[in-house]
Amino acid sequence: MSASLHAIFKRIRAEGYKLTRPRRVVIEVLAGGETHMGASEIVAAVRQKAPDVGRASVYRALELLTRLGVVQVSAMGRATTVYMLTPACCHHHLVCVECRRTVELNECALRDLEKSLASRFGFQVQGHLVEIYGRCEACQDNPGSAPL
Amino acid sequence: MSASLHAIFKRIRAEGYKLTRPRRVVIEVLAGGETHMGASEIVAAVRQKAPDVGRASVYRALELLTRLGVVQVSAMGRATTVYMLTPACCHHHLVCVECRRTVELNECALRDLEKSLASRFGFQVQGHLVEIYGRCEACQDNPGSAPL
DNA sequence: TACGAAGTGAGATGTTGTCTCAATTATACG
DNA sequence: CGTATAATTGAGACAACATCTCACTTCGTA
């Protein structure tokens, strides 16, 4: 699914950051849980594995991991941010704007684009996220019935 | 840039929703401001044009407009959601994870994919958003110096 | 023009994210 | 293998962001 935990740990050290308990546990939680989790879910899961880890450290870990490209943040088409480990291979989301149900795709239309960006803008690409918004089959008939 | 305001207003009525003052002003603000705005910016701008509009109505309008595909929400690679009018044509973001500076692209690698999704999943595509994460040229040398 | 449903404003409430600072800990080095 | 030290942490205050409730207003229809 994504890079092995070991590889991620190594990466953190290689970038000059310490591999601390909060960081380790956050990564483990993200790797073991749903494909994408809300902040509160992550905090809860982390504190179940390691009750002495503070909330702030979870956010700080997510911040760092996002900067390193290990974690991606998405609004999933609404004003609720979710976090996920950056998938090793390309990964698109089909997000229903009514019910928020999500289909994950494993195809990629962007490999070539990504390469050209590096040379044209001097941009160091870490990964990308594609979100396609619309209504899933179920919600085309009864819009406005979103569960949340 | 995006569909004309008039077309959006028509669309709201066509979907059976009322074209109210808060909704009109939110759309005008999004059309007139930066390409993407934070929630608080939008609220401030709306209240400048129409001081009697409540905060909740701004959020409600954004919610509706998102469901209609008129507005898109993005986390811009971090835990801060921004809102923008859905661009008429394809629109990619290059988001720097260090400083959050953003480059906008006007090319599209997804037209074909989008079509095939409609038939394969019965998904009614409204639009898509591509976010490519990495470090911009300036931030490759001094990571960790993000302004926010 | 009057009616009814949809939408609204205000502010309480809930959630999410950030900050500060003394105490702790991971790593490099002797 | 200890020790120095700079990075990191935990707790909880704080701030920002988002949602909810409910009495009142307004849009669109007839």
Task: From the structure above, extract its key features.
homodimer, 148 residues, alpha+beta, Arc Repressor Mutant, subunit A, Dna Ligase, domain 1, 2 domains, 21% strand, disordered C terminus, DNA-binding
Summarize the entry for a quick read.
The structure is a homodimer of 148-residue chains. Chain A is 39% helix and 21% strand.
Structural summary, described in words:
- The structure is a homodimer of 148-residue chains.
- Chain A contains five helices and six strands, in the order ααβααββββαβ.
- Chain A has 148 residues and is of the alpha+beta class.
- Mean pLDDT of chain A is 80; it is low at 143-148.
- A three-stranded antiparallel beta sheet of chain A has the order 1-3-2.
- The first copy, chain A, has two domains: 1-86, Arc Repressor Mutant, subunit A (Orthogonal Bundle), CATH 1.10.10.10; 89-148, Ferric-uptake regulator, C-terminal dimerisarion domain (Dna Ligase, domain 1), CATH 3.30.1490.190.
- Chains A and B meet through α4, β2, β4, α5 and β6 of A and α4, β2, β4, α5 and β6 of B.
- β6 of chain A pairs antiparallel with β6 (124-135) of chain B, so a sheet runs across the interface.
